[in-house]
Amino acid sequence: MRTHLLLSLILATILSTNLNAKNMYDRIQSMEAQMRSLQKEITTLKEANEKVLEAATKVDEEAAAQEVQEDTPENVSSIEDVLAEKEDAEDDASEEENNDEESADNEDEDEFEDETSIADLEESISELNRATGGNHLKFQVDYRFAADNIQYKMADGSTAKNNALLTNRLWLNMGYKATNNLTFKGQFAYYKAFGARTGIASTARMEDFDWIASENPYNDTLRVRQAYFLWQSRTFLGAQIPWTFSIGRRPSTNGHLINFRDDNHASSPLAHGINVEFDGLSSKFTFIPDWGTSIKLCLGRGMSNAQAKFSSTPYATNKATNPAIDLAGLIFVLYDDKQYSFNTMYYFANNLIDANSANPASVTGFDTVGGMHSGTANITIKGIGDEWSDFLDESIFFISGAFSKTVPNNKTNSLGTKGMLGSTDSKVGYSYWIGTQFPSLLTEDGRWGLEYNHGSKYWRAITYGEDTLAGSKIAARGDAYEAYFTEYLVEDILSMQLRYTYIDYKYSGSNGFFGNTTGTPMTMAEAKAAGYGSQIANKAQDIRFYIRYRF
Fold first, then answer.
1. Among 299, 357, 359, CA closest to 327
2. Helix or strand or coil: residue 386?
3. Is 111 within a domain?
4. Domain check: are 163 and 307 in the same one?
């Protein structure tokens, strides 16, 4: 401050110099005189300032000496020692205070700063990769060989079986993280029964339906099972609300709970209500990160309606065919701390269909029969108790309940009937599902599991993509029992599983569609009396063994 003041005085003095001097020599002489005068004034001010500082220091030393006499122990012999100890104590207190503040900050933050630092580092690496030609997709291989022994007992007492259905399943997973916020993910799928490409036509004309195109084994076609981009951000419209947005062919199979026995990471849907391939979009908002509280909006299209390319009005809506099937749903996670979770899901599907023939060999199209509400909720415990034992710490228990409610459009179908599931009235079905998974009794990394589920007369689930070749156990109108164990042979790369699934159907139509043709529930006696005894399964079982390679 003083330096700026002196410079200002000098500048003012120079500017106020008599500019009317007779010549330049006079001007210079006058300026030098003014400068000498200012230098004397500066020297005087410095001397006075030093005296003031000296007096203040003396007062401080006398006060410190007084503290030594009154408060310090006898072994402290000088003011310098006291001042040194005071300075060390102040430094220690300051350091402790800083540590406390940092600790408090870490407790208050939800790891956002750490994630941001990691994200910044990842962004730098990504930029370097792009600059050096390293911007390529990352691929992962998931190959599975499986052998299924499938047995059926029909309503009329006859049997059907396949002692050894051998299959190859290949998933090629791909992904690329372009920025910290933007990721692409995709998956090619190949699922083929041994020797299936023989030119012999299958009698099941619905096996390549879009919902299950990559979930059923038949030929060697490589299909796109997933393809979507994912946007992630820690803020939404300036608020600290983590959110995501995604659109494309979404991962909607192998959802929560069914993923335990399938030994997969769970996709977002709750598998008690839906387990099919879908095209659509989703957006998730996390409101209480500490609780894991979030809500996710899902929109999907399960069947499209459009004119052919070379029609007079290409891609316009085709009024002669079924309207598009659309689905809208919400997944609400009330609480999830990675040990305890409570998840719910609701959706409404419109323009649902039924086959226009009960005989799969004669199906030539579909009838639109109405819509359906569906809801499910589950509680999952990953680690029973609080360190009661190593066995319970690694055990999982879940319970889930679900309902379905039909909304018939009551239009006459191609077979001359109306309604959904055999009724023109709205019908409610329900289902419950319990299961547990626990550490292997043989190896360190293996897992064993037991599950049971029950479905009522009018229960309907959209679970056609479930990985059970004998039919979706979750869709069963009756009782289903399952036991399995999964063991790892080579680290987490090569694994094997043995699984047994048994389904006791109380009503027909468990694996049908939504109308009267394939979805009407009948008891086994009613089915036999109606002439369907050889077409309706009463009991089914599937014993599966697989070896799986993932890398």
1. 299
2. coil
3. no
4. yes
Euclidean distance between CA atoms 316 and 304, whole angstroms: 11
**Phi–psi pair at 49, nearest 5 degrees:** -65, -40
- Residues 241, 96 share a domain: no
Judge if 49 and 197 occupy the same domain.
no
Q: What residue ranges of the chain have pLDDT lower than 50?
A: 1-22, 24, 59, 64-65, 67-80, 82-83, 86, 90, 93-113, 132, 200-204
Q: Choose the final residue of a domain: 106, 138, 164.
A: 106
Question: In angstroms, rounded to a whole number, what is the distance separating the alpha carbons of residues 225 and 276?
Answer: 11
Q: What is the DSSP letter of 267?
A: -
Are both 239 and 331 inside the same structural domain? Answer: yes
- As a whole number of angstroms, the distance between CA 230 and CA 281 comes to 10
> What's the pLDDT score for residue 456?
98
The region, left, alpha or beta by phi > 0 then psi within -120 to 50, assigned to residue 155 is alpha
Structure tokens at 468: 């059970």
- Per the structure, the count of domains in the chain is 2
C-beta of residue 439 within 8 angstroms of C-beta of residue 391? yes
Do residues 82 and 64 touch, judged by C-beta distance below 8 A? Answer: yes
Residues 131 and 100 in one domain: no
CA distances from 345 to 213, 242, 254, 325 (A): 24, 20, 15, 19
Residue range(s) defining the domain that contains residue 85 = 2-106
Contacts of 251 (CB under 8 A, 6+ apart): 185, 187, 226, 228, 267, 268
The pTM of the full predicted model, rounded to 2 decimals, is 0.74
DSSP annotation of 210 reads G
331 neighbors 363 (Cβ within 8 angstroms): no
Give dist(CA 161, CA 165) in Å, integer: 10
Q: Are residues 262 and 403 in the same domain?
A: yes
Residue 53 φ then ψ, to 5° = -65, -40
CA pair distance 128, 134, nearest whole angstrom: 8
